[in-house]
Amino acid sequence: MSRENVIYEAIREMQGSFDEKKKNAQAISEKIRKEGGVAEAVRLIDMNIKQSIDATRKGFEDSFSSGVFYNK
To answer: Under the phi-then-psi rule, with left for phi > 0, alpha for psi from -120 to 50, and beta for the rest, what region is 36?
Structure first.
């Protein structure tokens, strides 16, 4: 097979898989939208950030009260 044919076949294969991947991505996006998945993800991220801030604050407070340098 010539180099041009190899490139041509690779492009054709990519186009075929692209259409299927696009269809799957659209289906997943629709499911996330219908189920409120984005809002839930944002809620979980916010909760995680709050927990991290609270843990850092507690670490600093503990280190100041004990005199041990807090470095996490």
So the answer is: left
Is residue 56 a contact partner of residue 72, using CB atoms and an 8 Å limit?
yes
The string of pLDDT tens digits covering residues 21-38 is 888 889 988 888 888 888
Q: How far apart are CA 43 and CA 37, in angstroms?
A: 10
Q: How far is residue 40's CA from residue 33's CA, in Å, rounded to a whole number?
A: 11
> Is 38:32 a contact under the CB 8 Å cutoff?
yes
Task: Report the share of the chain in percent with pLDDT over 70.
Answer: 92
CB burial class (10 A; 0-12, 13-18, 19+) of residue 25? exposed
Indicate the pTM of the whole model. Answer: 0.45
- Note the helical H segments in the chain: 3-35, 37-66
